[in-house]
Amino acid sequence: MTVFQSLMDKLATQSANYLMLIDPDAKNDDRLDDMVAAANGAGVDAILVGGSLIVDDGMDRRVAAIKERAEAPVILFPGSANQLSRHADAILFMSLLSGRNPQYLIGEQIQAAPVVREMGLETIATGYLLMEGGSSTSVEIVSGTKPLPADKPDIILAHALAGQYMGMAVIYLEAGSGAANPVPDDLIKIVASSLDIPVIVGGGLRTPADAAAKVRAGASFVVTGSIAEESPDTETLAAFARAIHTA
Question: pTM for the complete prediction?
């Protein structure tokens, strides 16, 4: 069974899946063990590994360390074709559909595809939509693209539907790490109710109640990143897991 299918099967017994994001940059070297241990004890459904910008060559080593310790599947969340590792279980093979920079629509994907095949990574085709979150994000700066306005649901839905019709397995609505404003619940409801594929939501979720609201709005996967970096303890992550699983 694939990683993606196993996660989808979980939706028969819980409201949504909790994905914890780890930035595999040098700044987290001293806390990787703590973050993975907390995830193991909290009931995290999968660990995402990736970031918009990695400033050294240690990503592969860090993915290997995470995989060695993790009880949940490890899924790459790459910011570029350079952020690949054979130590992961799967990869969100993403296209930045909200932008118009061809490098992130298809360029990075072409560079990555032969390597992904050689590594034997399971691919999860993902349509990535960057939303306005009230502040500039690393994704916006690195990709050279503008986020979609959160108050234009018709435009956002059109992008999401295009991703579905092009064969994407999931649509990722992202407000950006540490966003001042998370993706609005009303927008999630519109997108999730109009698609036949699941929706991932991340960015700016600071409390378990925030996360549960996204699930009730229609998210099948909820991502947190900053929480694990700021409070890498089982109790904190477990509260998020319970809220997401039972919303």
Answer: 0.97
Give the pLDDT confidence score for residue 231 in this predicted structure: 76
pLDDT of residue 29: 87
Domain residue limits, the chain: 17-246
Question: What CATH architecture is 17-246?
Answer: Alpha-Beta Barrel (3.20)
Q: What are phi and psi of 176, to 5 degrees?
A: 100, 145
The answer, yes or no, to whether residue 165 has pLDDT greater than 80, is yes
The per-residue pLDDT for 177 is 74
Among candidates 218, 95, 98, which has minimal Cα distance to 156? Answer: 98
Residues 56 and 7: their CA atoms lie apart, in Å, by 31
Calpha distance 228→36 (Å, rounded): 9
Among residues 87, 34, 95, the alpha carbon closest in space to that of 60 is found at 87
Closest CA to 177 of 138, 126, 216, 144: 138
